[in-house]
Structure formats: structure tokens, C-alpha cells
Amino acid sequence: MASKTTATSEYLSGATSQPRPVNDAPPGYWCLAWQGRENIYSVLLERRAVAVNLGLLLALLIAGVAYLSFGSVPLSVSEVIPALVGRGDMMATFMVSELRLPRLAAACLTGAAFALAGVLMQTLAGNRLATPGIIGIDNGATAFAIASVIGVGVTIAPPAMALAGAATAAAITFGLSAGSGTQGYRFIVAGIGVGAVFGALTQFYLARVPIDTANAAYPWTVGTLNARSPGAVSLLAAGLSVGVVLAMGLARSLSILRFRDAVASGLGVKVKACRIQVLALSVVLTGLAVAVAGPVGMVALIGPEIARSLSSSRHVPVLAAALAGALVMVLADLAGRTLLAPIEIPVGIVTAVVGGPWLLWILMRPQRSRP
Fold first, then answer.
1. What is the SS3 assignment for 145?
2. What is the pLDDT of residues 206-220, one digit of tens each?
């Protein structure tokens, strides 16, 4: 067992004793090599990961076309495609470009951000329940953002307040779980308690404002894309672009972190610094996503689970989780817009209906050692 663990660790870290020729890829991989000015550079691409990512991207494109087609005014695909390039009739172009496409972009961005934050936090904690929504980060961001939105003595922009709330909730959760770190159920229970406190704080804010203001803000507290701000969406797009690059750069360290800390340190990973980076990235992504759509935390649970079920267990499916989260968010918002039309169901309620049974399934099935 020890030799098997050592071999697996060396494989994940690239610390094998014999150098492999750049054109000799292990089974299941492609090797891309190119000549630099002085050195030869090579990258290994896992074939299954490439196939999964391309499949999820194709599914997202199909879901996006369906999203643009269905609504209060149905459009055919032959009307949607020309409208995207500005060659359709006036009504179709307006419906697609001005109404549905911005909301589709917001759905993709928020879903990807929530799911990416979820897979990072789950890997950090070694627990598939440790999503930002379950450990209170979503509720912290929501409470602070609502204070800004409804003007409870706060004038800071909602994205900044959401980031501050997410960071505050994360700091309190980690403080309450001191001694167990991010491992074990103490961390989860502390997060649930912190989330409950911030949820009560949000309700307290809403109880202090006029009924019209509270009614307008309430759908945003359960998760909706109706109240999206163009500025917040642009900020999320920039943050997600940087976040995906940083997460891909941390992918190797994330895979090694699934071993014990001593093993990870022996393989060259700076465990403490890596954990801080992963936590900070997860908090920022969650805060920016909440500022756009409110707390749609179940996407952070469903997206990574879909990615893991499709991908191999050798690596953390960072990119696949983001794509799966975007797909879940698009399909959930499409269902919310069309199932009971003209009544619109907030996307947070749709994901909760799906995510609740999914959470019970995770709790009831046999658990693996690491996510």
C-alpha cells in the first residue's frame, strides 16, 4: 500500500526518477511539445479531461441556444442565429441581444463562479459538503450586499460589500473551527451556524425597511438573475477570468493536497500558502457571484459533483466544474422562466429543489476518503 501511494504521489507531482521523452505520453494522455529559444517545452493533456470539457462546452452551447429561443415570445433557431449577428428582424434582435443574451451571460458567469468556488472549497476541506453555501460564505456575502442594496446605513457598492461579507463569514467559520482546521465535521457545523446567523441578519434588514423595498429585495435574497447589475456582471467576468487562470495554476497542488499534509509538503507543495490562496480565491469568486445573482449556493454542490462523475479521480476537475456549474445555472434559470410562465421562479428556488435531494444522496451514499 505504501509503494502504491508513493507511486501515485510521484505521478501527480511529476517527481519520477526517470525523465520521460517529450514525445512519449503515458496511456490516456496527449503530449504537446514545442521548441523554445533554448529549451523544449511540453504539456500533458489527459484525453478524458479534454473529452469531458469539450462535451460540457457543447452541452452549454446547446443549452444557450435553447435559453435564447424559449421565453414569453418563443423564437426558432433560424431566428436566434441571425439575431446574434445583427441580421435578424427588429423584434428578434431586440429580444435576443437586449433581453436574453445579457441574462444568459450572467447565468454562465455566476454558475461557473459558484461551481469553481465550490470545487476549490471542497478540495481544501476534504469534504464534498464544504461548499460556500453550506459553510455560510454565501449568506455572509448576501447579508452585507443587502445592507448596501436597501440602504441600511451603508453606501458602499454591493460587490464590495459582498466580498467583505464573504471574507467575514469565512474568517468567523475558520475561527470557530480552530483546532480542526478545514477538516472534519466541526468545520461544517461551524459554517452552518455562521450561515444561520447571517441569514437572520438579512431578514432583520428586510424587516426594518418599507414593505415595497423588502418585496423588491426579497427575490434577490433567494437567488435571481432579474436584479443583475451590468457593473457587477462586468466585475464578475473579470474576476472569473483571473480566477480560472489561477485555479488552473493551482490544479497540481490541489491534486496533491488530497494526500496528507506531510506527503504534500514532501512533494514540494507549500501547504499553508496553498490553502490561503485557495480560500481567498473561493471567497472572492463567491462574493462576486452573490453580488450578481444572490445566494445560489446549490450550484456549488451540483456542478463539482457532475464534473467528478464524468472526470477521472486522478485530478481535481477545475475547468469541468466551472463548465458544469454554468450549464446547471443556465438550465435552472431556463426552467424557472418557462415552467410556470408568465410567472417566473427565482433560479435559487429551482436549484434548491434539485440540490436538496442531491445533498441527501451525498449524505446517504458510501463516502470516499477524499473529494
1. helix
2. 888 888 888 777 777
